[in-house]
DNA sequence: GACTCTCGGACAAAAGTTATCCGAATTGAG
DNA sequence: CTCAATTCGGATAACTTTTGTCCGAGAGTC
C-alpha cells in the first residue's frame, strides 16, 4: 500500500478540526513531509471529491462533507485506487493442459478466496470514519496540545 | 501483493494431487511460467516448511503435510512475508507540533484501524485450506480433465 | 562414476513508488 | 486594476521493489 495513504488520512483528520481552508504547504510543514509530493496526494483526494480546494490568497483545502461521512476506505481508494491487491492472471488458461477460455465462465477458486478476503478488509475499513479517528485522537491527547495545534493552523 | 503468490497456490494444489515428487521444471512448464523464477518461490515455500524437496533422479517437490493442514495464508506469508500492508511511519512524532516519543506508548488511531483490517483479511485467508481449493477445483472441472492432468504429471 | 536435480546467490531488467520543479490559471486584497 | 498568494497539472528524475535470468556448488539416485 502506498505511503501516501497515511498522509492523506492525517490530513483529513487535521482538516476536520480546522475551521478555515488550510494550504497544502501548511499541511506539509505540519507533518514534515515533502510539500510537492503531498500536493499530489491532495489532488487525488480532490479528484475523488473528498476535499475541495479554493484558490487565491486565503485558499487551501477543506473537507467537502462532514468527517462522519468520510470513511477510511474512501481515503484509501482515492489515493491507492480501488483495485484489489490480488489480481488473477488466469494461470489455468496457460500451459499444455490449459482449460479453454470458454470454459472459464466462473472465476478460479483462488481468485474467489482472495476476493472474499479483500471484501473483508474493505468492509472493516468502511466501518470507520474520519470522525471516529478524530474522536480517538481527542480522547487520548491532552486538550492543551489540541489547542496549540489549532492555534498553529490559524497562524 | 506479489504475483508469485498465485503461482505458489497453484503449485500447492497440483502437488496435493500428485502422488510422487514433482520437479520444479515440470511445475513451471505446466503453468507456463519462468522456471528460474518459480524455483525461487518454491524455495520460499520450502524454507517455510510447507513443501520439501527431494534430490536426485526422481526428485522434486512434495507437500510436507496434508492439504487440509495448509492454509492459503500460510502460502501467502511464506512468499510475501508476514508483514502487514500498512506500516505506520509515526507522523505524529514529526513536524513543529510533534508529540514526544515518550508520549507515544499506544499506536496511533490510524495504525490501529489498519491493523484491525489486516487482521480481518488474514483471518479470512486462514480459514481456507489447500484442500478446500482442491475440492472446489474437482467439483467444477470434468473428471476426464483431472485424469489427463494426473497422467501428464507422471509422464 | 555419471547423471539429474535442488539450492543459493549474484546479477539484470522492468515496474512502481517517491519526490521535485515549473508554468498556467484563479482568486482575494490593496 | 494590479499584485501577491495559491492551487492545478504535467513533465521529469531518483529511488525502491518486483520480476526475471543465469550459473556454479552440492547432494542424491541409478
Automatic annotation (TrEMBL), chains A, B:
It comes from the Bacteria. InterPro entries: TR_Rrf2-type_CS, Tscrpt_reg_Rrf2, WH-like_DNA-bd_sf, WH_DNA-bd_sf. It holds the Pfam family Rrf2. SUPFAM superfamilies: Winged helix' DNA-binding domain. NCBIfam families: rrf2_super (TIGR00738). This is Rrf2 family transcriptional regulator.
